[in-house]
Amino acid sequence: MTNLANKQRGVFTIELVLVLMGFSLILVFTMDVVAKQSIKGKLDRLSYSLVSLIKERTELFDGDETITYTEATKGLNLVSRSLKDTIGDFEASRLGVYIEQQQFDDDKQPVSPVINVHRFSLGQYDCQPDTPLSNMTDMAPVTQFDNKLTLYQVTICYRSNNWYGDIVGERFERVRSISMSFGR
Q1: 3-state DSSP call for residue 159?
Q2: I need a labelling partner for 35 at 20 to 30 A (CA). Which of 117, 131, 142, 144 fits?
Q3: What φ, ψ does residue 95 adopt, rounded to 5°?
Q4: Which helix (H) or strand (E) holds 155?
Q5: Of 8, 67, 75, 26, which is closest to residue 48 (Cα–Cα)?
Q6: Which 8-state DSSP code applies to residue 65?
Q7: Cα–Cα dist 140/146, whole Å
Q8: How far apart are CA 109 and CA 107, in angstroms?
């Protein structure tokens, strides 16, 4: 009888270890998802705010509609400062911003920009949208004056901690938010 009790205790211990390992894996996965969702929410608000600022700057400052590198850099700095205030372990090297603008000519055709005039890849982390704005020109509304409105797209990426990915040998780091808008 004692031998059987020892064997059952050994089996119970092995089963308990396996269950605790599974529970730990689920716990780490849940913590990783919650942390990434928190960052995603912050990036969503920032990308929407930045695309709104970029599209409204012509109305606010009566300026040219074309985005300049200086304006794009100011956008990156704004995002960086905001994330520094809201993410405890923020690192600027993990941040990437991609700003695009697509303008149209009088025939409602996309204006071919000079290289790097309407697209800005900023920050130290590579950040690209899945679909470039140049592939979405049909989304630009036509005004009552028969003009197509300028399209703007802001993509913000942040490389988060890879807690779950480190355990399972994968890379689940990039958190990305994309916002799109059109001018007036």
Answers
A1: strand
A2: 131
A3: -105, 140
A4: strand 151-159
A5: 75
A6: S
A7: 12
A8: 5
CA–CA gap between residue 70 and residue 14 (Å, rounded) = 62
* Number of Cβ within a 10 Å radius of residue 100: 23
Q: What angle do CA 75, 76, 78 make, to 5 degrees?
A: 65
Measure the CA angle with vertex 130, ends 177 and 104; round to 5°: 95
Task: Assign 115 a pLDDT band (cuts: 50, 70, 90).
Answer: very low
| 45-95: pLDDT as tens digits | 999 999 988 888 766 656 667 788 888 899 999 999 999 999 888 888 999
Strand order in the sheet with 119-123: 119-123, 95-102, 151-159, 174-182
Helices then strands, counting H and E runs in the chain, come out as 3, 4
**CA–CA gap between residue 140 and residue 183 (Å, rounded):** 9
What string of DSSP letters covers 43-63? HHHHHHHHHHHHHHHHHHH--
Task: Name the DSSP letter for residue 100.
Answer: E
